[in-house]
Amino acid sequence: DIKGFAFDLDGVIADSARLHSKAWHQTADTVGTTWTPELAENLKGVSRMDSLEMILKAGGHENEYTQAQKEELATAKNTQYLELVKTLTPDDVLPGMKAFLDELKANGYKMSVASASKNAPTILKQLKVMDYFEGIVDPAKLHAGKPDPEIFSLAADVLGLAPANVAGLEDSGAGIQSINAAGELSIGIGSELSEAAVRFDRTDEVSLAAIKAKLA
Ligand code: G6P
Ligand code: MG
């Protein structure tokens, strides 16, 4: 029985995946890596430094930068990302997700956040949805990011629930793998998430009734 939900943030609650992409696209231009839709998709759910490594590798530039230079590139990306984040308002909660959070709250489900983003608290505050959640997993404390199960296991701990009683929501393939490996029910939002136990094309399709119908 599902008693709680662990939410990814970027691309699930917040319309911020496009802002990450915009900022990383600029980084790719800076280092001379061609920006492609596949690269953009593969960066979803991946930590800041790992994302930079993937961008460098995609263009064969992985050996051209010192650790200090890599940290500078990552900091520049985050500075630009935070400029874009400033424009986010409660209207940038993705379609239907506010209603879904309200539905879960009204029905006594517990909620937590399992995002790789160190900016998650800033974004949740800006979207005015912080109060829905029991807690947020701190990505700085992780030994391994998505697709490792650690983050979604910790998201169940935050809820005080066994993984079997938790459903995870994700827009990334790495995130779906993390949920599955944690032994939770995976709910994918997006077209290319074949490993998800339940899948929706868009956030505005997600509701308790729709999840139950897909599991039946
Ligand atoms: C999420 C996003 C990724 C982002 C990562 C780290 O997982 O999907 O695109 O790179 O968080 O975010 P941060 O805000 O800490 O750089
Ligand atoms: Mg995401």
UniProtKB/TrEMBL annotation:
Instruction: Give the UniProt keywords, A-Z.
Output: Carbohydrate metabolism, Isomerase, Magnesium, Metal-binding, Phosphoprotein
Q: Cofactor binding mode, per the note?
A: Binds 2 magnesium ions per subunit.
* Co-factor(s): Mg(2+)
Q: Which amino acids does the record list as binding Mg(2+)?
A: 8, 10, 170-171
Name the domain of life: Bacteria
Kindly list any coiled-coil regions of this protein. Answer: none
Q: Where is the active site?
A: 8 (nucleophile), 10 (proton donor/acceptor)
Keyword hit for Kinase: no
EC number(s) given by UniProt: 5.4.2.6
- Residues that hold substrate according to the record: 8-10, 24, 43-48, 51, 77, 115-119, 146
Q: Which molecular function term from Gene Ontology is one that the record holds?
A: magnesium ion binding
What Gene3D superfamilies does UniProt report for this protein, alphabetically?
Answer: HAD superfamily/HAD-like (3.40.50.1000), Putative phosphatase, domain 2 (1.10.150.240)
Show the catalytic activity.
beta-D-glucose 1-phosphate = beta-D-glucose 6-phosphate
Q: Which GO terms describe its biological process?
A: carbohydrate metabolic process
Q: Where is this site: Important for catalytic activity and assists the phosphoryl transfer reaction to Asp8 by balancing charge and orienting the reacting groups?
A: 115, 146
Signal peptide per UniProt: none
Which family, according to the similarity comment?
Belongs to the HAD-like hydrolase superfamily. CbbY/CbbZ/Gph/YieH family.
Protein name (database record): Beta-phosphoglucomutase
Which species is the source of this protein?
Answer: Secundilactobacillus oryzae JCM 18671
Q: Which gene encodes it?
A: yvdM2
